[in-house]
């Protein structure tokens, strides 16, 4: 098959590209490299079955459609993943998430491509009353612009499935960890500790409960889902482990790996920022019913991520 992957140079996208190529497929990547890292595609460039379009998804649907020509399936990962600072630039989530997704869907329609996998988020659940939170939880009140923009994307995808005969796998992720990780709490903590190993400022009070998933487990889950029976319309699947940890737990694993014992300075409150959910724990029975199981615990995922960033300090410097 020929796959079209948006956000191909990003954390998740580049890992998917490598797996698709390893499985013998052709892959066309599309990335404006605003946050992606072309170095993540080093092994992909060694394959004659890979090509990359260095372009933006926001403006030219015709260009996207031309790049998609001949593809059988679209993985749409390109997005603004900056949840924390959404209120500082609300238009960015609208443009980079919702409008870009519309452009991808329109390009697919023009090329007659009908199969899509979309990276949504557990943030769309806001602050639910049900834990673990299932895919059919009562419609949530949105607490972040990021979550709201992703939920709008899901609505567009469902409408294209109804109106144009698309079939889609919509994956609602917890935070993903592992090789090529480039943003999130581990990244932020390690940047702080690289500058000053004696002090660590923690947003919130450390009691926030979070669930995480290692990137290899995430890719395995997605590829299993799309290889199962093709959904007739839009199928929503939560991706995560059947566990969670506190932010304080994570800090303990990070500092243990780094061999430091900083003084912790908590900023107070049960939320780290506006829109930060104090408890994220998704019900993953749907994907587990397909035979998937996570191979890595949250602790091992955190520790693997720390070791990766220690071995690749240029990523921390690049972010700075």
Structure summary:
With about 325 residues, the chain is of the alpha/beta class.
How would you describe what is shown here?
The protein has eleven helices and 13 strands. By secondary structure, the chain is of the alpha/beta class. It has helices at residues 11-22, 42-45, 61-68, 90-111, 145-164, 185-195, 215-227, 247-258, 285-289, 298-311, 313-319, and strands at 2-6, 26-30, 50-53, 73-76, 115-121, 167-173, 175-177, 199-202, 209-210, 212-214, 234-239, 245-246, 263-266. Strand 2 (26-30), helix 2 and strand 3 form a beta-alpha-beta unit.
User: Roughly what is the average pLDDT, rounded to an integer?
Assistant: 95
Main beta sheet: 7 strands, parallel
SS summary, helix count = 11
What is the element string, with H for helices and E for strands? EHEHEHEHEHEEHEEEHEEHEHHH
End-to-end C-alpha gap: 39 Å
Structural class: alpha/beta
User: Which outline best applies?
Assistant: globular
Can you lay out the helices and strands and say which pair or pack?
Layout: E1 2-6, H1 11-22, E2 26-30, H2 42-45, E3 50-53, H3 61-68, E4 73-76, H4 90-111, E5 115-121, H5 145-164, E6 167-173, E7 175-177, H6 185-195, E8 199-202, E9 209-210, E10 212-214, H7 215-227, E11 234-239, E12 245-246, H8 247-258, E13 263-266, H9 285-289, H10 298-311, H11 313-319
Parallel strand pairs: 1-2, 1-4, 2-3, 4-5, 5-6, 6-11, 7-10, 8-13
Antiparallel strand pairs: 9-12
Helix pairs in contact: 3-4, 4-5, 8-10
